[in-house]
Automatic annotation (TrEMBL):
<dbReference type="InterPro" id="IPR003439">
    <property type="entry name" value="ABC_transporter-like_ATP-bd"/>
</dbReference>
<dbReference type="InterPro" id="IPR027417">
    <property type="entry name" value="P-loop_NTPase"/>
</dbReference>
<dbReference type="InterPro" id="IPR050107">
    <property type="entry name" value="ABC_carbohydrate_import_ATPase"/>
</dbReference>
<dbReference type="InterPro" id="IPR017871">
    <property type="entry name" value="ABC_transporter-like_CS"/>
</dbReference>
<feature type="domain" description="ABC transporter">
    <location>
        <begin position="6"/>
        <end position="241"/>
    </location>
</feature>
<dbReference type="InterPro" id="IPR003593">
    <property type="entry name" value="AAA+_ATPase"/>
</dbReference>
<keyword id="KW-0547">Nucleotide-binding</keyword>
<keyword id="KW-0813">Transport</keyword>
<keyword id="KW-0067">ATP-binding</keyword>
<feature type="domain" description="ABC transporter">
    <location>
        <begin position="250"/>
        <end position="500"/>
    </location>
</feature>
<dbReference type="GO" id="GO:0005524">
    <property type="term" value="F:ATP binding"/>
</dbReference>
<dbReference type="Pfam" id="PF00005">
    <property type="entry name" value="ABC_tran"/>
</dbReference>
<protein>
    <submittedName>
        <fullName>Sugar ABC transporter ATP-binding protein</fullName>
    </submittedName>
</protein>
<keyword id="KW-0677">Repeat</keyword>
Length: 514
């Protein structure tokens, strides 16, 4: 039987007005992958902060190899052997790979940091992970996946025996995620325990040995073998009841109608070449590709945030020049639901009603530009009810909401503006299973009422669930188009083949889809 490294018993953590953890238990054993699951707000983040010394528990206790420990700071947790890789990177962009890896315990000589001596331990950690990275390279030059692996190398350097990975694949392509899983397997082979926090249950089942499920601050399943449970068992434990799939009524987009948005041979300063696509009323067009394919950059160029160097943009069949997202909204009716909701999607320090109505202040303004508070709140309240935004009231700041509800607020502001076309970029990254289904229902219903949607997503299941057609992008080009029949195994095979096909063509892809 594997050694128990870290155990928590009856952990309680209370914040003003909230009992975030209520008697949670967890047992982590050497050489295993332990999945920590739960919906947004279930207590996962708080438990991670207790395990890593950010928050002391108000009741209960932690034991390390059978001995009770008190982790008062993250440094104490690190010295004990507990490391964490957060969803948001915790690296210094202007430092080198070696400097970041050895940051918490840098080699010194005569009382000064010995920068030359940093390379040897950094290389050792990188080689252990199978990474071919120059330790002198600046972190800002690395991809998201490479930065994440540097974070794991940091944990190796501090000799972490328990490593917590918080949503590690949220921004990774399928291939990058598989590379990460190979690293995880190397870690468990050297007796490290990896705690895997994720909303992607297919990945959880692919890599995890044991599982703990939190709901409303309690552990409803504690350190159990994952093999004893089905996918549906875990979802039902997370939501507290039998979970039903998204209720999507049939819709039939008109394939011969004039596209609301059409791109013809678009080239951009970011390197896009000859990109053509069309989105028609009532249609959801999926734009799928690996991280770095250029999907978000293409959309930003169309919205005037980057330079279009060739080709033509047409709105309702008429050539259009778009200089800014503001013009895109007010002149052409195009809304953009960004993937970066915290920095670009919502004003975290502003109330919900102000976030929702920011796109229609001009319409609501009366004499001297004064916005009617009553009208503002009426518009916001209607959308809060329509989208099922869970909040204490319209005056609650957006930053106090869960990630899923923040995303709904971001969507609400575009619906308030009566957008004629909605571009949705990674709409469900970091949200839980139930919220994801709700969001899928919302997008499907919007399309059913005639709103065209361009969906950018790295979640292949999401694209196959929602899209009518899937455009596959790689290296800043469209590699082909696949008509979607929503059959996952068949569709995923065609899409993945297109990504890796060195000589793709839209014609061959369409023939393949028949």
């Amino acid at each position: 039987m594997s050694e128990v490294l870290l155990e928590c018993r009856e952990i309680v953590k209370v914040f003003p007005g909230v009992r975030a953890l209520d008697g949670v238990g967890l047992r982590l054993t050497a050489g295993s992958v332990h999945a920590l699951l739960g919906e947004n707000g279930a207590g996962k983040s708080t438990l991670i902060k207790v395990l890593t010394g950010v928050h002391p528990p108000d009741a209960g206790h932690l034991t390390w190899r059978g001995e009770q420990v008190h982790l008062r700071t993250p440094l104490e947790a690190t010295r004990t052997g507990i490391g964490v890789v957060h969803q948001e990177r915790n690296l210094i962009p202007g430092f080198s790979v070696a400097e970041n890896i050895t940051l918490q315990n840098p080699p010194s000589r005569h009382g000064l940091v010995d920068r030359q001596a940093m390379n040897a331990p950094a290389l050792r950690c990188l080689e252990e992970l199978g990474l071919d990275l120059d330790p002198h390279r600046l972190v800002r030059e690395l991809s998201v996946a490479q930065q994440q692996l540097v974070e794991i190398a940091k944990a190796l350097h501090t000799q972490s025996e328990v490593l917590l990975l918080d949503e590690p694949t949220a921004s990774l392509s399928p291939q990058e995620a598989e590379n990460l899983f190979q690293v995880v397997r190397r870690l468990t082979a050297r007796n490290t325990c990896v705690v895997f926090v994720s909303h992607k249950l297919e990945e959880v089942f692919a890599i995890s040995d044991t599982v703990t499920v939190l709901r409303d601050g309690r552990s409803v399943l504690e350190s159990a073998p994952l093999a004893d449970h089905t996918h549906d068992d875990i979802v039902n434990l997370m939501v507290g009841r039998a979970h039903t799939a998204a209720k999507m009524l049939p819709r039939t987009p008109e394939p011969t109608s004039v596209p609301v948005l059409a791109l013809d041979g678009i080239c951009t300063a970011r390197g896009h070449q000859d990109v053509s696509l069309a989105v028609r009323p009532g249609e959801i067009v999926g734009l799928y590709g690996l991280v770095g394919a250029g999907r978000s950059e293409l959309v930003k160029a169309v919205l005037g945030l980057d330079r279009v160097t060739g080709g033509e943009i047409r709105v309702d069949g008429t050539p259009a020049r778009i200089a800014s997202p503001r013009q895109a909204l007010h002149e052409f009716g195009i809304g953009y639901l960004t993937e970066n909701r915290k920095e670009e999607g919502v004003f975290l320090e502003q109330p919900i009603h102000r976030n929702i109505t920011v796109t229609v202040w001009k319409k609501l303004a009366r004499a001297l530009g004064v916005v009617s508070s009553a009208e503002e709140r009426s518009v916001a309240q209607n959308l809060v009810e329509r989208l099922g935004i869970r909040a204490s009231g319209l005056d609650q700041n957006a930053g106090e909401l869960s990630g899923g509800n923040q995303q709904k607020v971001s969507l609400a502001k575009w619906l308030a503006a009566d957008t004629r076309l909605l571009i949705v970029d990674e709409p469900t990254v970091g949200v839980d299973v139930r919220t994801k289904h709700v969001f899928h229902e919302l997008l499907w219903e919007l399309a059913r009422t005639g709103l065209p949607i361009l969906l950018i997503s790295s979640d292949l299941t999401e694209v196959i669930t929602l899209a009518d057609r899937v455009l596959v992008m790689a290296d800043h080009r469209i590699r082909g188009e696949v008509g979607n029949d929503h059959h996952y195994e068949r569709m995923s095979g065609r899409i993945i083949r297109l990504i890796h096909d060195r000589a793709p063509s839209a014609v061959s892809a369409q023939q393949d889809a028949k």
